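Example for reference:
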Amino acid sequence: MRPLLFTFYLEGSLPGSNRYLDEREGPRWLERPEIAHVMSECIERGAEKQHYRIHAYVIMANHVHLLAAPKVQVPVLLQSLRTESAREANRLLGRTGHPFWHRESVRQPIRNRTELERIRAYVEWNPVKAGLVARPELYAWSSAGGASRSAVAG
């Protein structure tokens, strides 16, 4: 399958424009290192399970961008990733009976190699644009930074 850019955000965050996703409104559980770590591990585990090939990802305070080429049906990919990460994050947060992820996610198909590279740069530069770091490789929770690069395709 062709690569897709998946964007999913925390329940209670404002869907739609990424401008709103970067604002300080709503839950920001993913900025907690232990929760970001869980999300990073779940993303990489999905690649290990052969659900997708990772091209890039970033975990922001209230949303995640995953640029990946699916190897399984997209609903299976999303169900696995979202369920596993929500279960573990809610356990760490001491939350039960509350949704972690907003029920809808955004999927953007990638048409060609040029667009793939543009979107990869967008994903990895997200923390820089948000003012969190000076360079993408300094952000711990992305394919450009401190997260393991073993599952990330070149």
Summary: Residues 74-93 form the longest helix (20 residues).
